[in-house]
Amino acid sequence: MARQARFETLELRGVGRTYGSQVALTGLDLTVRAGEFIALLGPSGCGKSTALNCLAGLIPLTDGQILVDGARVDTEPAERRDFGMVFQNYALFPHMSVWKNVSFGLEMHKVPRRDITPRVERALDLVHLREHARKLPAQLSGGQQQRVAIARVIALEPRLVLMDEPLSNLDAKLRLEMRTEIRRLHQELGLTTIYVTHDQEEALSMADRLVVLRDGRVQQVGTPEELHDEPANWHVADFMGFRNLLEATVEAVRDDGVVVAAGDIRLTGRALEEVTAGGRARVAIRPDDLRIAGPDEEPAENRVRAVVRVVEYRGREFALEATLGERVLHVRSAVAPAVGETVELAVDPSRALVYRDEGQPSQVEEALAEATA
Ligand SMILES: Nc1ncnc2c1ncn2[C@@H]1O[C@H](COP(=O)(O)OP(=O)(O)OP(=O)(O)O)[C@@H](O)[C@H]1O
């Protein structure tokens, strides 16, 4: 098959997929620009693999359209889309050498013989595997196998690269190395990439834009900074590492902030969704935005007195858990108080994000409920 020209835009319009009465994905709208690195992010079962497989043409859509530069591709079979896929389990041919694994796709695509050798060489060079070309996949480490899978896709020069949790079978150190490697390849080759992961750090460090999914629906699309600083709702905040999610009642909505009460705690925060006095809310605070304040430090507002229960050393700082009645607060701190000590925790009102609460449990609460069931 002849290579198709790179595109300007890839558009998903109302893409959905149901399995009987089970909605795996619904109403996915997204416009991807040429050269972008997009991460589809969300917890297990949120529909990210479904979205990727719909794009790849491995499963048909039940709703919506996929367009490349305005022309529909969702009606085309997978092999006509010119999209390349890197799978979680590498999906290498075990009986073929590294070289053959990479050249095979080119042969299948009827690339002229004289072009195959330079393309395989270049792809293997890019992933630093040239000297392993004669080996079989079983003679390689997991990281090297994943590099072969990536080389195979690079050699095909597809107009879109799809990656489904490509690093989840690697150990932590290799995962970090391969993150940088994939990012470097993306920058060097400018391949438009859609990358599925449940790891928010991975997504934040690699992607130009992130799409956060939950229960098959898009929650937010934004740059890493946008998602990090201003999650659209408390579920996104939950997923983005705001470990403190206090259930609260809105006391007052003022120009300079929203006053909320969570048991004995009273805080002024910044509303990122419309909230009304008397309504339920969730206050989301990152562990590194809760700081231990000195007794005479000004201002004295936005303070919580809590008892330190756990102190864990984490390299340059400490991860603390402090309790206040039933509540547990997670704090990142440069200093380590003693276990049992009472501390004053302070949060800047702009860093206490206030959201509407419809009463669903958070990830942690769900996990606790499952564990005690
Ligand atoms: N073949 C299928 N038949 C029925 N339901 C399915 C099928 N494939 C997926 N689902 C359901 O669709 C929902 C989304 O699944 P999907 O695999 O896309 O999630 P995911 O976010 O990729 O999760 P994971 O990270 O665990 O792979 C889930 O509730 C899943 O059970």
Automatic annotation (TrEMBL):
The organism's superkingdom is given as: Bacteria
Membrane found in the keyword field: no
Q: Name one GO molecular function term.
A: ATP binding
Q: Which Gene3D superfamilies match?
A: 2.40.50.100, Nucleic acid-binding proteins, P-loop containing nucleotide triphosphate hydrolases
- Pfam family, any one: ABC_tran
TM stretches of this protein: none
Name this polypeptide is given:
ABC transporter ATP-binding protein
